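Propose amino acids for all 354 sites.
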């Protein structure tokens, strides 16, 4: 959301008082707000379901539309979104469910009159079975889950919130689709050299993805983190990864790791998180992926990006050059996003067998 937003960024008060339930093999009725909820077994269950849904979707299996028939998803986006919002909506509809949203977007709902997040979320909670929330405050989805639980008790419902990204915090479902795409394209997560490039400080996708990789407990996998000094991965995440024995290599020089990378995960410099334009301009051209650079990567490497892309992938001509390279798999990644979200919604709403 832009400067005219009526919400403020900064940590949400409930972050530390609400601990989301671990999945532990059972998704139904659980809020999905952090990758910390997932262990390897849960990821395998979800990814098996995703593969089955992808196959059935491609066969136009009409049985899929029974999974969420009669169920409603509310889409609450306080920040801009293309893929997360549309793929969740498409996922719900392809499962036979319905989608609601404030008619002209959340900023023209009572948020415009100054309504707080807790009340808007509880309104959606009265009408929907699942709420997808994107909000600029770190921890906002924890706050939503906290208030939804109280509402659920009161009106005897089980509405869940699924985070679509909370500020510079986490983006758990993006990490799920990213990890699924890595394993799907490389055949396994073991013995991969995975290189995250760009704004590792403010990019929520790389925060969630690196933690999720650690929770998968791969063998012989290395995480290369390439960022300018001012945009390094937060220390707390590095410490957590180290505790889980993930081999990490932090560097400012892409050359150190480009030739050994099996997966290149490129990210946008998060302009909206910078204090001013000068600070952004000073760093915005730091790492630019262009076809000539991709030529230096291994022949069997894959190039991923959560998108949207800006300067970090050069000009539109560069985009075309990159898109033509079979190693660029960001459109497959994008499509997988919908299938992973279908699997997640199916599991969360009714533990459907898929
Ligand atoms: C990302 C996001 O919003 O965090 N996009 C996405 O969800 N696919 C990445 C970004 O905005 O750079």
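Proposal:
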């Amino acid at each position: 959301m832009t400067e005219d937003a009526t919400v403020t960024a900064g940590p949400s008060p409930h972050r530390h008082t609400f601990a989301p339930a671990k999945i532990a093999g059972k998704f139904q009725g659980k809020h999905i707000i952090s990758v910390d909820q997932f262990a390897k077994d849960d990821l395998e269950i979800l990814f098996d379901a995703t593969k089955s849904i992808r196959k059935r979707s491609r066969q136009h299996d009409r049985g899929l539309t029974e999974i969420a028939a009669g169920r409603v998803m509310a889409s609450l986006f306080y920040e801009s979104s293309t893929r997360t919002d549309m793929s969740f909506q498409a996922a719900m509809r392809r499962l036979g469910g319905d989608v609601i949203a404030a008619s002209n977007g959340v900023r023209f709902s009572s948020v415009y009159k100054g309504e707080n997040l807790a009340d808007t979320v509880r309104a959606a909670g009265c009408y929907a079975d699942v709420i997808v929330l994107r909000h600029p405050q770190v921890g906002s989805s924890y706050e939503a889950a906290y208030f939804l639980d109280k509402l659920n008790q009161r009106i005897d419902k089980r509405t869940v919130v699924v985070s679509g990204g909370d500020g510079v915090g986490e983006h758990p479902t993006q990490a799920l689709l990213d990890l699924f795409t890595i394993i799907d394209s490389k055949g396994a997560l073991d013995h991969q050299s995975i290189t995250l490039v760009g704004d590792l400080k403010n990019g929520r996708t790389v925060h969630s993805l690196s933690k999720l990789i650690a929770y998968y407990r791969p063998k012989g996998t290395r995480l290369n983190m390439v960022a300018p000094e001012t945009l390094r991965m937060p220390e707390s995440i590095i410490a957590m990864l180290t505790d889980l024995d993930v081999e990490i290599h932090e560097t400012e020089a892409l050359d150190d790791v480009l030739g050994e990378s099996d997966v290149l995960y490129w990210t946008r410099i998060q302009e909206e998180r910078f204090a001013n334009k000068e600070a952004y301009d000073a760093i915005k051209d730091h790492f630019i992926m262009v076809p000539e650079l991709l030529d230096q990567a291994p022949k069997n490497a894959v190039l991923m990006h959560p998108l949207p892309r800006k300067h970090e992938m050069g000009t539109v001509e560069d985009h075309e050059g990159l898109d033509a390279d079979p190693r660029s798999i960001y459109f497959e990644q994008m499509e997988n996003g919908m299938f992973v979200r279908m699997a997640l919604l199916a599991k969360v709403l009714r533990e459907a067998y898929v």
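The radius of gyration is 20 Å. The pocket of N-carbamoyl-L-aspartate is lined by residues 83-84, 165, 171, 174, 204-205, 268, 306-308 (CB under 6 Å).
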